[in-house]
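The freezer alarm interrupted the setup, so I double-checked each line after restarting. Inputs confirmed:
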Amino acid sequence: MRFKEIGEFGFIDSIKEQCVISLGGVIKGIGDDCAVFGPYSGRVLLFTTDMLVEDIHFLRDTITPYQLGWKAVAVNLSDIAAMGGKPLYCLISLGIPVEMNVAVIQDFYKGMKDICEHYRVNIVGGDTVASPDKLIMNVSLIGDAKEDEVIYRSGARPGDKIYLTGNIGDSCAGLKILKKEISPPRSMAGYFLKVHNEPNPLIETGRILATSRLASSMIDLSDGLLSDLGHICEESGVGALLFRSKIPLSSELKLLASRANFNPLDLALSGGEDYLLLLTVPEAKSRDLELLFKDERPSPLYLIGEITEQEGIRMVSDNGSVEKLDPKGFNHFMS
Amino acid sequence: MRFKEIGEFGFIDSIKEQCVISLGGVIKGIGDDCAVFGPYSGRVLLFTTDMLVEDIHFLRDTITPYQLGWKAVAVNLSDIAAMGGKPLYCLISLGIPVEMNVAVIQDFYKGMKDICEHYRVNIVGGDTVASPDKLIMNVSLIGDAKEDEVIYRSGARPGDKIYLTGNIGDSCAGLKILKKEISPPRSMAGYFLKVHNEPNPLIETGRILATSRLASSMIDLSDGLLSDLGHICEESGVGALLFRSKIPLSSELKLLASRANFNPLDLALSGGEDYLLLLTVPEAKSRDLELLFKDERPSPLYLIGEITEQEGIRMVSDNGSVEKLDPKGFNHFMS
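Predicted 3D structure, all chains:
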């Protein structure tokens, strides 16, 4: 069997046994946005990594080097945000085509340094190697939090409310514009390209959720709403019901969809790279949560559904009709 | 200017400013085998990463998938050993060609799991992505140690003795056999190929050195003796004098060299990937060190030179003649 047939999640399932050989210190291994270990003086450490490979995750001519550096760190920061952590230290591995211009790589590194400075992360080392032709980046990031602040994927319970911290689908629209699947006027394209190429990880939102101790589970949206909500459901042993009319869509996306004749909900449900936070909150705490986010600070907050005992993800329309949804997120091997 | 002209170390010099933006917690950033941060309850954490790219660091047909997995983790463990640390948790990022056979990757992962189990390291997560054609691996590893146990590159002082923990040059001979630059009989080749493809990081030796508090500086040999000794000299602001007749060479290497007509000292000085420990020890403690390593447990130990106030690396022969050596290690971009 070849890799493209088994896919990323199939492969992870096939190797995840016996990875943790000594339980001492490991609080969470494979299966969440970050690994968690410790505690050290009452705090636990969060540990995450992401690899970006040219022509798989990006095309060199559709993103500036600066944006690429920014984004490579941003996707890792988003994993720390999803656990409610504070990012601290990162290592940057680069595989650089030997013919690449040094000034380009320095621009790229500038993007990395700027986002690290913005989020108060120290770049403490890395590895710089040659690559035969493709640019390769791997960022490893460590953060921390108090042990009882950390929010896992596994805590969702039936009756919990499901919230999302912003409009969804814009990044996927940006990707479709880059791939020339949609060709809007230039003035319209800029918004989506910026969302796609310059994600802003929700560290502050994650910290507020962590310290408030209101959320029962959380994940960041990287693979797409259905896929990522599917991870929460799987880890928590529950299902979910989404409210069709409550899925938050930007006015920009609605306008683009009407002009380019597609259903924006498709991008919202199955697109990826939104880097928003998706969380669940027990019903009794949902009013406190909404008060905490009033005036859309630090993020907007949208109630989009609720956790159910019945497994699987379903969506209910305003007319009461319910449809079953098949989680289809961005899967690197099987797209 | 292109990347191959500036090289790995030139690039690192060009970007290392302003990487650490908040000193709180960072004990050592760029410039040692691991980053060091903390302390947490009197312990500090060691953080390192290495990227291996197909056709740069290995050829798929000269190493088994199992050995490749073993080696990808081993090179990171060696960085923890070089600081005197205990390895704890790793993340594994894989960029996998979509056409690759799943069984091959599982063999590869078996090598990773076996070395992690051997050295009591937990695999706590990672990232699995597609790659257009080359196999890419990035391992990030965290270890720890007591704050005053950690051995840096920067502590060497004039008069310190320089020690090496094993025979050197065998791995480079293995590489030359793989590249068909040397073609010994099969019975002779096996030894060198095993040294090159299955390095054993010296974790136990590093721990004994850390707890004994005898070493003033340490590094692992990955780039080659001259290059790595050069790093100690640069970070410590000193020079070194090597004793030509004391550089430890295996009987296998001497035999191979006499048959294939090369000078084994060239491989010993400028080869790479030995994954031994190179350390310095104040003269007053050198007898204690030698007693600690008597009977070659946990490693052999060879006195190979001494640290000098005069900068640069020189080598003295038994007849008293001194030559200046130019550090030429394995440089990924300029080879």
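Quick read of the result. Residues 65-83 of chain A form the longest helix (19 residues).
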